[in-house]
């Protein structure tokens, strides 16, 4: 679902900027891209630089760790995976242990959890690994 830039959303952006939240984090929280956020902020005369006039820069590893932490908070034992077609979503119920293992693997690879899940599902489908994964003996 695309982010709707309503007046309430723009007020939320102002508040997040005032709290020192980076533009990348704001875009993720709103479910939009940084580019769209920048355009709408500019149209509404909102500076995304923060209270001290500078943007907080994060390393890629910090951003991946932050996104994974956010994923864990959102998940609460459930995780939504966005597929290539944004209109199609999967809702998966995962045990905490499984989700934690996915998060650790994502951090090792320097990607987000949804990327790991997408790659796993695509590989299973492409390589016809259903029987290997779906152990019917269990």
Helix % is: 55-70%
Q: Specify the biggest β-sheet.
A: 2 strands, antiparallel
N to C succession of SSEs: HHHHEEHHH
Radius of gyration from the alpha-carbon trace, in angstroms: 18 Å
Which descriptor suits the 3D outline?
elongated
Please state roughly what percent of the residues sit in beta strands, choosing from under 5%, 5-15%, 15-25%, 25-35%, 35-45% or over 45%.
Answer: 5-15%
Total E-strand runs: 2
User: In terms of structural class, how would the helical and strand content be classed?
Assistant: mainly alpha
Number of domains: 2
Count the helices. How many? 7
pLDDT < 50 stretches:
76-85
Average pLDDT: 77
Distance between the termini: 37 Å
How is the largest sheet built, in terms of strand order?
1-2
Q: Which descriptors apply to this entry?
A:
138 residues; mainly alpha; 7 helices
Topology:
Elements: H1 7-18, H2 23-30, H3 34-43, H4 60-75, E1 78-82, E2 89-93, H5 96-109, H6 113-126, H7 130-133
Helix pairs in contact: 2-3, 4-5, 5-6
Notes on the protein architecture:
- This protein has a two-stranded antiparallel sheet with strand order 1-2.
- The model is unreliable at 76-85 (pLDDT under 50).
- It is elongated.
- The chain has two domains: 1-57; 60-133, no CATH class.
- The protein starts with 6 loop residues before the first helix and ends in a 5-residue tail after the last helix.
- Helix 2 (23-30) packs across helix 3 and helix 4 (60-75) runs antiparallel to helix 5 (96-109).
- It contains seven helices and two strands.
- The relative contact order is 0.09.
- It has helices at 7-18, 23-30, 34-43, 60-75, 96-109, 113-126, 130-133, and strands at 78-82, 89-93.
- The protein is mainly α and 138 residues long.
């Amino acid at each position: 679902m695309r982010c709707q830039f309503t007046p309430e959303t723009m007020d939320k952006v102002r508040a997040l900027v005032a709290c020192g939240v980076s533009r990348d984090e704001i875009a993720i929280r709103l479910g939009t891209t940084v580019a769209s956020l920048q355009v709408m902020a500019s149209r509404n005369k909102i500076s995304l630089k923060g209270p001290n006039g500078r943007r907080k820069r994060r390393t890629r590893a910090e951003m991946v760790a932050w996104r994974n932490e956010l994923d864990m908070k959102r998940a609460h034992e459930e995780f939504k995976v966005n597929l290539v077609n944004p209109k199609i979503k999967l809702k998966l119920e995962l045990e905490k242990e499984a989700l934690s293992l996915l998060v650790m693997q994502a951090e090792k690879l320097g990607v987000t959890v949804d990327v790991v899940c997408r790659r796993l599902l695509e590989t299973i489908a492409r390589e016809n690994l259903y029987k290997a994964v779906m152990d019917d003996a269990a």
